[in-house]
Every structure is written in structure tokens, then in C-alpha cells.
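Justification of resources, computational component.

The compute hours requested in this renewal are based largely on the per-chain cost of generating structure records like the one below. Each record pairs the submitted sequence with a full C-alpha cell output. That output is archived, and it is also reused by downstream analysis tasks.
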Amino acid sequence: MGILSWIILGLLAGGIAKFLLPGRDPGGFIGTTVIGIAGAFVGGWLSARFLDRPIANDFYDGATWAAAIGGSLVLLIAYRLLFGNSRSRSR
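The structure output for this chain reads:
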């Protein structure tokens, strides 16, 4: 898979992670998208490094998708924990 495939996978994985973990995000749509892309890379790296399960070069491989979505969920949760209350709530 090339870099463009990983970016597309990250966009989709970020959307799925957002669907699985709804709520307000401090970064909005752009922040969630960037977290999804980064999560795809982090999930792939973690899978290859610690689970001894290298990511296949196939876009439609289930393990690739699971790693990307899992990485996106981990980063989205960490982002909410670190920056969840940083938005001003003016009402």
C-alpha cells in the first residue's frame, strides 16, 4: 500500500472511530481526521512491533483495518483525555 492508500484508510478509520466513540471533540472534523490518519500509522506500527502481526500490503485486509481503527480509537481517547476541556464553553 502506498502513502495515499494509508491516508484514505486513515480517513475512513477516523470516521469509524468517531462513530464508535461519539461526542464533541476539541479539534472538530479536521482534528478527528488527522487523528484517524495518525491512528492508521500508529495502529500499523503497534501491530507489527508488539503483536508480531505485520500489516499486509492489501487495502482490504481485515487486520489492516482493525489496526487502523484500533489506533484511531486509542489516539482519539488520548486526545480527549488531554485536550477535552480546552474549548471555552460560552453560553
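The mean pLDDT is 76. The chain is about 70% helix and 0% strand.
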